[in-house]
Amino acid sequence: MSPLTFSSQQRRVLSVILVPAFMSLLSVSIVNVTLPAIETSLETGTSGLQWIVSGYALVFGVLLVSAGRAGDVWGRGKLFVAGLIVFGLGSLAAGLAPTILILNLARVLMGIGSGLLNPQVTGMIQQFFAGELRGRAFGLFGGVVGVSVAVGPLLGGALVALLGNEGGWRWSFLVNVPIAVVAVLAARWLLPDDAWRAAAGSGPAPLGTGAQRRKTDFDPIGMVLLALGTLFVMLPFMEHSAGWWVWLSLVIGVAIVWGWTRWERRYSERGRSPMVDMKLFKTRSFSNGTLLIGLYFMGYTSIWLLVAQYLQNGLHHTALAAGVIGLPAALAGAVAAPIAGRYVTRVGRVMVMWGLTLVVAGLVLSALVVAMHSHGVSEWWLLLTLGFAGLGQGLVVSPNQTLTLAEVPLAYAGSAGGVVQTGQRLGTAIGIALITSITFSLVAVSGWDVAVALGFGVVIVVVLAAMAVGAADLGAGRR
User: What separation in angstroms does the CA of 59 have from each of 16, 106, 262?
Assistant: First the structure.
């Protein structure tokens, strides 16, 4: 068997974990184009609609590291299946919701399910793949991430077009239910026995020491502290319309996260197995990669919300048309990510820089298309220009994931993957809050064309900041 060929066991693992990962990430973006239909159907206002998006993202982000550590300790297969069951129940409740309150509670349940299952995906890739095969596996996962972001609006728009406002938004949730059921059965049947046991066996020794492995424990206080800190940090960006007082939670959250880092250090010094070993952040590839992808998601995920609002509210296109705009980007990312995964271990962080350059080029061209729309340039040129951004996405997410986790011990694969994904969720929450606020505040003054072009400009600045982190990492590596 070729060293670059997946074994039958590895193929089974990928077949089980990638479809649910796609499903849960799709639920982040699919609501972008179904919100107007939900508003009409349930007769709700802006606040209710806001929590459809933010409630899911908030709970999802809060749970990632804790769930990753739980998978490390109790077995990733168990947490993966638990997440699938919770996500499926939440999707069923969302699709049948009679009121906006029930829908928002159901979305929170869906977020819990996603938060439980997603860290197990990266953890199992770390567990069952190594070397270039790990890069290829993360490449496939990166394709799933890119496609889910861009295909979500397309699928949501298609359902609304086919089934009408009422049936369309409900089936955007109900479609997850049979997928979750099949995925649970497939996991029980296809996942290897090792997936159901603690991957670490016994607890890891402190990083950078020759100590013996320690008895694994769950570090419940560390988990509670980080969950609360993440909650308080994300809250003002989710509920930024509540008033100035909500920003106090940001200060509280930062203080709690600082307390969490102190707790983890002391926990490790007492000979216990912490939730996240703070020495991980002294590993350049891990700390720089986590910061880079957090900045990247701060910018990139706002693109599709801006595009959906621009086409529907600004240019009065249908939800389906708004979703079609992202299709070339999704296809480009889906093709590029697996190819990038084959070569990332040889090329290194330079590949991520190429991807970021393509994203910036696509955004510059997209901003020009939107700015020139009033002078006769068709908005459908965005199909091409955003395609460059999608191609860049394929060279950024999965290669960065591979490089960021390359030096992480297997015993911390789940929690370290959770840290990376938490950075992505924090970046997404902050970026959507800031970039959409800037853009929509300009609409009344300058019109949709100028406002969205400037919104793309803000995204470009954020992606350039991610490029600066990548350049610094490359420079440090050469030194």
Answer: 24, 12, 24
Q: What is the pLDDT of residue 365?
A: 97
The whole-model pTM stands at 0.81
Give the list of residues 6+ apart from residue 360 with CB closer than 8 angstroms, or none: 392, 460, 463, 464, 467
The answer to whether residue 361 scores a pLDDT higher than 60 is yes
C-alpha 370/C-alpha 358 separation (Å) is 18
- Spatial neighbors of 13 by CB under 8 A, at least 6 apart, are 124, 128, 190, 191, 192, 195
Integer angstrom CA distances of residue 99 from 35, 57, 260: 14, 20, 38
Identify the bridge partners of residue 214 per DSSP, sorted by sequence position.
Answer: 203
Specify the residue for token string 């700390």. Answer: 287
The distance of Cα 37 from the centroid of its chain, to the nearest Å, equals: 25
CA 479/CA 474 separation, integer angstroms: 9
Pair 37, 319: CB distance under 8 Å = yes
- d(CA 115, CA 63) in angstroms, rounded, equals 5
Asked whether the beta carbons of 304 and 455 are under 8 A apart, the reply is: no
Is residue 184 a contact partner of residue 81, using CB atoms and an 8 Å limit? Answer: yes
Residue 340: which of 138, 148, 477 has the closest Cα? 138
Specify burial of residue 208 (Cβ count, 10 A radius: 0-12, 13-18, 19+): exposed
203 has which bridge partners?
A: 214
Alpha-carbon span 125 to 134, nearest angstrom: 7
Query: How far apart (Å, rounded) are the C-alpha atoms in residues 259 and 377?
Result: 53
Distance, CA of 143 to CA of 130 (rounded, Å): 19
Question: What is the number of other CB atoms lying within 10 angstroms of the CB of residue 78?
Answer: 18
Neighbours of 329 (CB within 10 A): 31
- φ/ψ bin of 364: left (φ > 0), alpha (ψ from -120 to 50), beta (otherwise): alpha
Residue 203's SS3 state is strand
- Give the pLDDT confidence of 117-165 residue by residue, as tens digits: 988 998 899 889 988 898 889 888 877 776 776 678 778 888 988 999 8
pLDDT tens per residue, range 208-247: 554 444 455 678 888 889 888 888 888 887 765 656 777 8
* Residue 192 DSSP class: -
C-beta separation of 326 from 150 below 8 A = yes
d(CA 64, CA 56): 13
- pLDDT score recorded for residue 1: 43
Q: Cα separations (Å) of 259 from 57, 223, 263, 311, 424?
A: 24, 12, 6, 45, 22
Q: How far apart are the first and last CA of the chain?
A: 38
CA 334, 465, 470, 468 torsion-angle sign: positive
